[in-house]
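Exercise 3.2. Students should predict the tertiary structure of the chain below and write it as structure tokens, then compare their answer with the key that follows.

Predict this chain's 3D structure.
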Amino acid sequence: MADQLPSAIDPITGDDKTVLGFLQALRTDLDEIKTAVGATPPPPPVTKTGSQPSGSNSAPNPVLAQDATGWSNSNPNYTAGRVPVADHVYAGYAYEVPVGADGAFFLYAPQRALATYGSGYTLTLAVDVQIESAASSISVETSWGGDAYPVSGVSTTTSVPTDGAWHRVEIDVSTSQPGGHIGIQFVATGVQEGDVVRATLADYVGQPV
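Answer key:
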């Protein structure tokens, strides 16, 4: 009769195994335990903030879905552009401006065309803003302009926390001329070199009056 390897009882399954089989199974179990203990934990869920678009939003390219057409800033020395974002409740992209030594700058959202209504339009122009800065908050002055309105002469100022969240800034305007194009623009006063300003979800709602 051929010699048989001594047997052992698997304490987990109760199976009667040879000592060699038992040791191989035990090694597999230990490897799985070590892998589990040393595994990188999954990242925490991303907290999403920001606004949802209005149902009648008429801003062109509001969330930079394909490219950054219409989005720009006033400082050609800043390396700005379209970047993916994961923490906005609606938008997947934003226009990002890393602030350089020149400091504050104007950020321009896309302009929308105004139909030729003799009495003009009443509009609410808005955009979501996110600012990374050592300061606890940044003052954002929001205004509007375009080819028919180079300088609006109307502005509103909002204190935007630098808490990593997206914050909506907006302005209500009444146009006095028909035709042309207008859009929202803002300047974050107090930003310094190394700060980062992002904007997305241009939201323009209005009607002829």
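Discussion points: The CA atoms of residues 15 and 143 lie 77 Å apart. The mean pLDDT is 84.
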